[in-house]
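Hey, I was hoping to borrow your eyes for a little while. A protein chain has come my way and I'm curious about its shape. Take your time with it, there's no hurry, and the full record follows here:
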Amino acid sequence: MKIRFIPYQPHCFAFGGFEIQMLAAFDAISGLDADIKKLDWWSRDRNFDIAHCWGLDLANYENVKWAKRSGKKVIVTALVGYYETAIQKLKFNISSQIYKERLIKEMAVNIDGFIVLNALQGKIIHEHYKIPYDRIFVVPNIVHESFFEYSKSENQDQNYTLIVGNVCKRKNQLNLAKACIQAGIELVIIGPVIGGEEEYGKQLELLISDQPNIKWIKGLPENSPELLSYYRKCHIFALPSFVEQQPISLLEAAVLKKPLLISDLAYGKQEFYKNSYLVNPNSISSIKDGLLAIHQSYESYLPDPERLQSCTSENVGKAYVSAYKSILGVH
């Protein structure tokens, strides 16, 4: 099997958890029963079997079309919304008639396989895009092996709450910081301000400027020893985002047996995050109450790390290869 990876956009323009997963999946598949390479946009070599596109959105519309015209199988790793509210469902229905979702539906018909993160996203692909279940494959995100190694050693709790990820409105660092200030809880924020969110970053900077109990580290390399150390020493891991799919940072914290504080939304109710404290991301008091509740009954909110074994690089790599073989009809 010859596989070629196609990113959603150049990584110099945007790079986050999705892109980290793309590269982690590439490494996990390499060395298994597949010849995998990153597609060279300047090469005319068509000698491959599967175009693996990352992202079910308009940027891949032409990639899917031309791959199919060239006789290739196409598989897409898709991040889809959960459409939890009536407004979200209405917007999807309108868009599917006159705007973006109409084109995505056209594209979806030509896709041979869809990789989704969990069963709920598989159901959404099935119901919203009319894709049969035999073309849908559930493959979770990868947690780097260093986290599994660290999980074997004793945690060094220093009683602070940790949040990791690009600083932006979606991830809601501002409300978390306000809740920590009200609760008198130490907070460590790790992540740079994402492009276009500079004003949000300034609001956060202003809020914490006179707060000695809040520390903002504006970026650490993924899976670095320093980042792992912050994970290992935190008391609570929090991510009260407004929108997520399957945050890697939560998986990483769960592997290290850290209690999780997550928004009371579909992404927070996945099996990997069982026992998490769920909060209203719009409510500072709800987030504060959650932090205090975890401090008062720490053991009640510990995750089950055994559930995370499917997130090892080895198991995810095998799951991808299985999906490739399925769409090629290879057994």
In short: The radius of gyration is 21 Å. The chain has twelve helices and twelve strands. The chain has a mean pLDDT of 92. The longest strand covers residues 2-6.
